[in-house]
Amino acid sequence: KIKKVRSAAELETREISKGYLDDAKERFEKAQKGFTDAKIGLDVALKAYLDAKAQNDTNATFEHAQDYLLHAADTFIQHLEKVKSRVLESRNIPESGVAEITAAIGAKIKILVEIKAEIEAAKTREELKLAAQKLREAWSDAKHLAKASAERAVESRLQGVTNRLVVLEKRLDAILEKAKAQNIPVDIEAELSVFSKFTAAAKDFGAQAQAKLTEALKLKLEGSREGREKAGKFAEEAHALIKKSQESLKQAHESLKV
User: Fold this and answer.
1) What is the C-alpha to C-alpha distance for residues 46 and 30, in angstroms, rounded to an integer?
2) Element at 28 (helix H, strand E)
3) CB under 8 Å to 212, separation ≥6 — which residues?
4) Residue 188 main-chain phi, psi, to 5 deg
5) Is the N or the C terminus of the chain less surrounded, counting Cβ atoms within 10 Å?
6) How far apart are CA 149 and CA 176, in angstroms?
């Protein structure tokens, strides 16, 4: 039996309520602001630290080093929160997958929060150095999970684009079938040309995005630093291509309103 598909939502892996989606987006915006604030604080603390060190002010150097590390921890934590919120709002990752990824990210955040408390509690240079080392090691471990999870969220968005494209094409078929059944002459050659142009563009951008993601995965598996850097670049390019694909889909949808 062929299933009739009326909307892209029917092709999605997860059902997400508007309230749930709004909460996830709110979490992302909050994390984005926290990340931005932490980055600004990081730059300010670094400058203050370098100034204090140049003046051989031991107490000020310690305080600003501590402040720098606290902002660094916040930057890492908020970055993970951003990725976590993107996964939570992903419609095309299975519920079990979302639970697994967010639990793993949550565990990394917990470790970073604990290390941040150690940084804040440090009273000596040795204690601060030990906490700084823990922070570096924790982030080195967590950043790979963050990248993989972010890429999974991007793939989910790409699947969403594909689903919407399927629905748009079915909608056009339905319009033409209805007109044929009712013996209504249809002269929408110009509109069909526009629709085809936008859907072709959406498919092309989507294919390019998928190719970038596939290449990014191959490079990551190489394990080299250069490979990881290139993989990050390809992932960013895939993100931009998905946006272009989504825009083309929007234009294709508008062209059907005839």
Assistant:
1) 24
2) helix 18-54
3) 234, 235, 237, 238, 241
4) -125, 40
5) N
6) 41
Report d(CA 171, CA 254) in Å as an integer: 12
Contact 5, 11 (CB under 8 A): yes
Chunked into runs of 10 residues, the chain (258 residues) has average pLDDT values of: 42 63 86 93 95 94 96 94 84 75 89 96 95 93 74 62 62 64 58 64 68 64 64 71 69 61
The DSSP secondary structure of 58-121, one letter per residue, reads HHHHHHHHHHHHHHHHHHHHHHHHHHHHHHHT-SSS-HHHHHHHHHHHHHHHHHHHHHHHHHHH
Q: What element of type H or E holds 91? A: none
Task: Estimate to the nearest angstrom the gap between the alpha carbon of 160 and the chain centroid.
Answer: 14
For residue 216, give every residue at least 6 positions away whose Cβ sits within 8 Å of its Cβ, in sequence order, or none: 151, 230, 231, 232, 234, 235, 238
Distance of CA 187 to the CA centre of its chain: 42
Cα of 70 vs its chain's centroid, Å = 24
pLDDT given at position 138 = 93
pLDDT at 216: 64
Question: What does the alpha-carbon distance between residue 116 and residue 124 come to, in Å, rounded to a whole number?
Answer: 15
How many residues comprise the chain? 258
Judge contact between 141 and 148, C-beta under 8 A.
no
pLDDT per position as a tens digit, 38-95: 999 999 999 999 999 999 999 999 999 999 999 999 999 999 998 888 888 776 677 7
pLDDT for residue 92:
65
